[in-house]
């Protein structure tokens, strides 16, 4: 009797194809250190706890339909923005992917990646690192108003602990993005110099 050969069924082959396509798209480019890879992969995970923390609020009683849509949308958009940090180490951050019409296969201009990344790192660092820490120390909102009575950090007990566990990692988002942006710029400049010589 002939030995059984392993044949992937379409249901099994599809996840493998997706996994290999995912890995190929997010494979770090040459010159990216292990630390930079870890920093880039950490960014979506730094944002994830706060994104998950706010989701139950979409089901609270007494909120409008618009608020119900806004809360999950904010979480989704936050994760998508956090995910773009991986582009600063992956091939799709240097060469446009094949699914983008007219641009596929062309090199991403350095400024096209640097300007939004620098702006994002600056805003995130100011908002979630500097202002958030200063406001927490002062007990005020970003606008300078006193914290409302229903502020999760004022609740005490496990509710406050859970809030700080979920929101404290956001302090790292801006600085990590800043480090990745500087490394991206340096790597691309070195590559351009090498290509010119």
Task: Looking at this protein, list some descriptive labels.
about 200 residues, mainly alpha, 6 helices, about 60% helix, globular
Structure notes:
With 197 residues, the chain is mainly alpha-helical. Helix content is 61%, strand content 0%. It contains 6 helices and no strands. It has helices at 10-26, 34-54, 65-83, 110-138, 157-167, 173-196. Helix 2 (34-54) packs antiparallel against helix 3, helix 2 (34-54) runs antiparallel to helix 5 and helix 4 packs antiparallel against helix 6 (173-196). It starts with 9 loop residues before the first helix and ends with a helix. The mean pLDDT is 85.
Low-confidence runs of at least 5 consecutive residues: none
Shape: globular
Beta-strand portion reads under 5%
- Helix share, percent: 55-70%
Task: Report Rg.
Answer: 22 Å
Distance between the termini: 63 Å
Whole-number average pLDDT? Answer: 85
Can you write the helix and strand succession as a string?
Answer: HHHHHH
Total number of strands: 0
Report the biggest beta sheet as strand number plus sense, adding barrel if it closes: none
Q: What is the count of helical runs?
A: 6
Summing up helix and strand content along with how strands pair, one would put the structural category as mainly alpha
What topology emerges from the helices and strands here?
Blueprint: H1 10-26, H2 34-54, H3 65-83, H4 110-138, H5 157-167, H6 173-196
Helix pairs in contact: 2-3, 2-5, 2-6, 4-6
């Amino acid at each position: 009797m002939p030995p059984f050969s392993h044949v992937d069924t379409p249901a099994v082959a599809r996840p493998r194809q997706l996994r290999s396509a995912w890995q190929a798209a997010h494979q770090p480019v040459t010159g990216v250190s292990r630390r930079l890879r870890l920093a880039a992969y950490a960014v979506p995970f730094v944002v994830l706890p706060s994104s998950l923390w706010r989701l139950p609020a979409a089901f609270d009683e007494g909120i409008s339909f618009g608020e119900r849509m806004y809360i999950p949308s904010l979480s989704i958009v936050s994760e998508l923005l956090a995910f773009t940090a991986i582009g600063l180490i992956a091939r799709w951050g240097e060469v446009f992917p094949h699914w983008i019409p007219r641009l596929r296969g062309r090199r991403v201009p350095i400024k096209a990646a640097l300007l939004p990344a620098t702006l994002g790192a600056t805003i995130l660092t100011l908002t979630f690192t500097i202002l958030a820490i200063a406001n927490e120390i002062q007990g005020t909102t970003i606008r300078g108003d006193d914290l409302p009575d229903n502020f999760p950090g004022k609740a005490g007990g496990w509710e406050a602990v859970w809030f700080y566990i979920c929101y404290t990692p956001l302090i790292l988002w801006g600085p990590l993005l800043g480090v990745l942006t500087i490394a991206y710029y340096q790597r691309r400049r070195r590559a351009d110099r090498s290509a010119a010589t």
